[in-house]
Amino acid sequence: MKLAPVLAALGDESRLQLVSKLCRHGPQSITKLSEGAAISRQGVTKHLHALRSAGLVRSERRGRERIWRLEPKRLSDVQSHLAQISRQWDDALARLKTAVEE
Fold first, then answer.
1. Domains annotated on the chain, with CATH
2. Percentage of the chain surpassing pLDDT 70?
3. Who is most buried in 15, 27, 46, 86, counting CB within 10 A?
4. Please, what is the angle between helix 13-25 and helix 41-53, to 10°?
5. Exposure on the CB side of residue 66, measured as CA atoms within 13 A
């Protein structure tokens, strides 16, 4: 699985805020996601499309609105990968500590 597009998508502050909002409040329309945002509704739409391209969100039509929701599997994959990197760093630091103490 390629995580670089996901991490790149999450590296943008506006997209990260949209993901956080979807995590906290569940599926929402662009109107709701735009409330309180520092960017325009069109900007929110652009960021949602970038998140969709990375596999982090999906949308469905509900009447006249498009409802956006998270793709939890993709976030879970990122979490697992970051946990693996964390373990590798912990191991490397433990080896360095042992080498310095010897």
1. 4-101 (1.10.10.10)
2. 99
3. 15
4. 80
5. 12
Task: Name residue 6's amino acid.
Answer: V
Stretch 3-29: mean pLDDT = 92
pTM: 0.79
Quick: pLDDT tens for 45-82: 999 999 999 999 999 999 999 999 999 888 888 889 88
For the chain, how big is the Rg over CA atoms in Å? 18
- From its phi and psi, is residue 46 left (phi > 0), alpha (psi between -120 and 50) or beta? alpha
